[in-house]
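Per reviewer request, we include the raw input and output of the structure prediction for the construct analysed in the revised manuscript.
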Amino acid sequence: MPIRTTIMRLFMTTAFLFLLIFQLNAQESKTLEGRIDPPFWWVGMENSTLEISIFDANKNIRDYDVTIKSEAIRLKKVHKVENPHYLFLELEIGANTIAGTFPLVLRKGREHIIFNYVLKKR
């Protein structure tokens, strides 16, 4: 077999393996198909605790883990109820939190759902 053919086969095999590994490591990211209540909140409220309800009729979101990507907002507790389509989150909004959005991430295995929650200026 000529060296050129061997190099071409080695290149194709390496490219195939790279694409296969890349595809296996890819995570499935989706947006929430349900609703979040309240749909937004305000910074600077007297009571710093906020309870959010999340509903999705198409998914058992009760089985998802929740994380918040914000240094100013702390996830105090996740309340999982009997109905698998609901989650209730108890958040602590820091006193110096600035108005804007922060991502709520629901994760189950390789799948994750991201919702950007809005905090408005009061």
